[in-house]
Amino acid sequence: MTVIGQVTDSGKRRMLVPGAVLLAFILVAAIWAVRYFSPEARVRRATAKVVTLAQKDGSESPVALGLTANRFGELLAVNANLEVAGLGPLGTSRQEIVQVFVQVRDAFNQISLLVPKISTVALEGGSVEAFVEAHYRFTPASSQGVWDGNGKATLHWAKGTEGWQIQRAVLR
After folding, report:
1. Is 137 in contact with 115 (CB distance < 8 Å)?
2. Which among 22, 36, 88, 93 counts the fewest CB atoms within 10 Å?
3. Is 89 left (phi over 0), alpha (psi -120 to 50) or beta?
4. Phi, psi (5° rounding) for residue 55?
5. Which residues, 6 or more positions from 157, have their beta carbon under 8 angstroms from its beta carbon?
6. Do the Cβ atoms of 152 and 169 come closer than 8 Å?
């Protein structure tokens, strides 16, 4: 009779192991989902998209420039502001900022943002601030030298009817 009892106990143990593994998997999946879909994670990914859109690897056709500008404009709020620290505002609406974006891309053959570091902070009211630090390198279309250095940007993101969009950007 003791042999049958031992078989039953080991059967119960076998049932507990898959349950514990399933519970651990569900816990890990829940933690991942919360971190992946949090506002800060979404803004971090959107900011990485802005960094990618800002880069340019050579001359581009007017159609490619227009498509890139359109993608960039979708990430901006209608009343977005762009400022350069120490110089003041460069654009006070989506349209003006996209025009500045097009002019800058058109003036340079190559725009590189090397090793960008992106961090985010959730603010009161549901908005998120993203901070970007990168080494920039601009090669002018006129082939006269190269501009490079370290730059910083602060992007204030807010969620509206069109999703997460940049309300204010300050470049340093």
Report:
1. no
2. 88
3. beta
4. -80, 150
5. 43, 46, 47, 127, 128, 129, 130, 164, 165, 166, 167
6. no
C-beta separation of 76 from 162 below 8 A:
no
For 121, the 3-state DSSP assignment is strand
pLDDT tens-digit series, residues 81-101: 999 999 999 999 999 999 999
Whether pTM > 0.90 for this model: the answer is no
- DSSP-derived letter for residue 125 is G
What count of other Cβ atoms lies within 10 Å of the Cβ of residue 58? Answer: 7
**Rounded Cα distance, 153 and 172, in Å:** 6
In this structure, the number of other CB atoms found within 10 A of the CB of residue 106 comes to 13
Q: Residue 41: what pLDDT?
A: 93
Q: Quickly tell me which residue has 């204030």 as its tokens.
A: 156
Return d(Cα 24, Cα 22) in angstroms, integer: 5
* Tokens representing residue 103 in the block: 């002019």
Integer Cα distance of 54 and 71 in angstroms: 11
